[in-house]
From TrEMBL:
HAMAP family: Pep_deformylase (MF_00163). This is Peptide deformylase. Keywords: Coiled coil, Hydrolase, Iron, Metal-binding, Protein biosynthesis. Fe cation binds at residues 91, 133, 137. It comes from Thiothrix subterranea. Binds 1 Fe(2+) ion. The gene is def.
C-alpha cells in the first residue's frame, strides 16, 4: 500500500468531475487500499479519489473510533434523500477549517463495493453527511462552496497558513536529517 498526496483548496484539480469506474479489478482495489491508508494516516473519516488526484468515482469512509468499519463506495449514487441536518464539517483538502453545512439527514445509496458487488443501503446522520460530502468531491464541489463569500475567503487563508506551516516543518526535518548525515 502507498500513502497518496492529498490536494489542497484551491487546487483546480479538486474541481474536476470524476469518471465512473468501468470495472472493479485489482488496480481499483489497490487504489481503494491506498485511499484507506491515506485517510487513516491523515486522521480522516472520509476520502474521495478526486482528493488524491485520481478522477474516478471512488470514496472511502470509516467514522468508527476504532477505525475498523471500512466502507468503500464505487460509482455511488443517491437514490433518495430525506430530512435536513446541520453539522460542522471539515475536510482533508481544506485543513484546519471547520464550518456548519446543511445536508440531507437520511439517504439511500447504491454503489459497488471494493469487491465489485452491488450495495444498496440506507444511511443516516454522520454517515449520511460524510457520504454526501465525499460525493460532492466527485462532482468537483467542496464543502466551502456552500458557505458565504467571506467564509470561503477565510477558508482559503486558513489553508494558505497551514501550507506555510507544513513547509516550515519540512525545512526543519530536512535540516535535522542533514545534520545527522553530516
Amino acid at each position: 500500500m502507498a500513502k497518496l498526496e492529498i490536494l489542497h483548496h484551491p487546487d483546480p484539480r479538486l474541481r474536476k468531475k470524476a469518471a465512473p469506474v468501468a470495472q472493479v479489478d485489482t488496480s481499483i482495489q489497490q487504489i481503494v487500499d491506498d485511499m484507506f491508508e491515506t485517510m487513516y494516516a491523515n486522521q480522516g473519516i472520509g476520502l474521495a479519489a478526486t482528493q488524491v488526484n485520481i478522477h474516478q468515482r471512488i470514496i472511502t469512509l470509516d467514522i468508527s473510533e476504532t477505525k475498523t468499519e471500512r466502507l468503500c463506495l464505487i460509482n455511488p449514487e443517491i437514490l433518495h434523500k430525506e430530512g435536513k441536518i446541520e453539522h460542522e464539517e471539515g475536510c482533508l483538502s481544506v485543513p484546519d477549517y471547520y464550518e456548519t453545512v446543511t445536508r440531507a439527514e437520511r439517504i439511500r445509496v447504491r454503489a459497488l463495493t471494493r469487491d465489485g458487488e452491488v450495495l444498496e443501503q440506507d444511511f443516516d446522520e454522520l454517515m449520511a453527511i460524510c457520504i454526501q460530502h465525499e460525493m460532492d468531491h466527485l462532482e468537483g464541489k467542496l464543502f466551502v462552496d456552500y458557505l458565504s463569500t467571506p467564509k470561503q475567503q477565510k477558508a482559503r487563508k486558513v489553508v494558505q497558513k497551514w501550507e506555510k506551516e507544513q513547509a516550515k516543518l519540512a525545512e526543519k526535518r530536512a535540516a535535522a536529517a542533514k545534520a545527522i548525515i553530516a
